[in-house]
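Table S2 (text version). Query chain:
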Amino acid sequence: MTTNATLPCSGSVLVVDDIPANRNLLRETLEPSGYEVLLAADGEMAIKVAQRAHPDLVLLDVVMPGLDGFAVCRRLKQIEATRAVPVIFLTAKDEPRSVLEGFEAGGVDYITRPFQAEEVLARVRTHLENHRLTRAVIAQKEELETINQQLRAEIERRERAEGSLQLADQRLSILSAQEAKRWGIEALVGTSVALQRIVEDVRRLQTLPGTPVLIVGESGTGKELIARAIHYGSAQSKAPFLAVNCSAVPQELAESLFFGHLKGAFSGAARDEKGYFENAHGGTLFLDEIGDMPLWLQAKLLRVLESGAIMPLGASSERAVEVRVLAATNSNLQAELAAGKFRKELYFRLTHFVLNVPPLRERREDIALLAAHFLNQLAAEMGMPPPRFSATALEVLGAYDYPGNVRELRNLVERAVIESGGGEIQPGHLHFVFASAPAANVEPARSGPPMAQIAPGHPVAMASDETERILAFVREQGSINNAQCRELLGVGMHRAWYLLRQLHRAGVLKQDSSGRWAHYRLA
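Corresponding structure-token output:
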């Protein structure tokens, strides 16, 4: 039998519960997987242990004598040494208000009892990995700032010598670095299966420093932040990370900007200048919107990837460069191939590993976590206590499709924080740019209309596939409860509750005293 001593430690977990049997059960769940388990029987003890031992994660019971779990979490978030430690709440209270209060207190997840050991281990592993990646990015702040200062100095020198036109694109990399410093890896916040898969891919790619990667996803899904996570968790983390938007590179300056030039190579070339590849030597060059790169430049990029050398303008010999290339696109490169707009050889060079980033509408269980995270972050930046989301506002947030993805959600939350003025955020504070907001307050009818008669803008119509599966289950089994809905759809508690409520508001389902939902004519 394998003992704990032979297992590598995966991190330390502080378990806080006033019931000894619960503490022992969690210790028996975690220790065989290599986790170091710390125990506390009440809130005050938990705060002392956390300050002394600095755990990597806290599993926190909600209902305890003295300080309850929410109060303990708020205290931990006020202490510098424990502020960043992720907190997962454990409770038998399966209520949306309780879940919301947990997120507002600073928790990252919410597990209801009774739970499966596999569920606890999966969530602990996910949040520990997110925490590790966050710390890795924070650890690079000084190096990132040094690179920013060097780039600023270079920009100022070039502007004095050549004017601002040729340097416009160099500023992009600095702005991009500042944005990453502001956001960290917030695009990776969440507990969805899709996000866990991305985290695993990022961790794998961090150990493969020479592998080119193509990151595919819609605009706003966080492709650059994933590229930064790959770079800053790799062996090249102390070397430069340069981000270039290929669609913003002026064609007449592109060759000089990418590969550099020698003095006198063209009119106005007053001195030798390095290009993106030489400035990123030893590190990573991130080519965003690679599908917008012109064919003639694609050919030159392919030559660099194959030979590991560049030819600056005006030079008579090549210069060796060692650069990892990460590329990203929101377009269909295979369609571009078929249309002759993208080189086949370059495509195969870049696709040694393809990382697909799902849109936010395909990981809806992460929306509430992301919204709560942005709410706390933005309120801190504005110097104000974080306001609350009303339950109805959360319903509306969870039903919208977010064509602009994570970026749109963040902008939406930012405006809501400003408009609410610190008060509770209501649906009226949520302004959806690309489409009308889902309805939030639809009075339930006394008899249920067929699905075909539900208006396209109605919340039920926003998730027709999920609702049809729920109704099919009800037709077959006669009724459904929240747990069965979660298992049927593979979604979180809040999403299941929201869908059932919207079917109720549409007059399709009715809940009985036992908590089960049935069709109006069957209830």
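Notes on Table S2: The chain has four domains: 4-135, 140-356, 361-429, 451-519. The chain has 21 helices and 14 strands.
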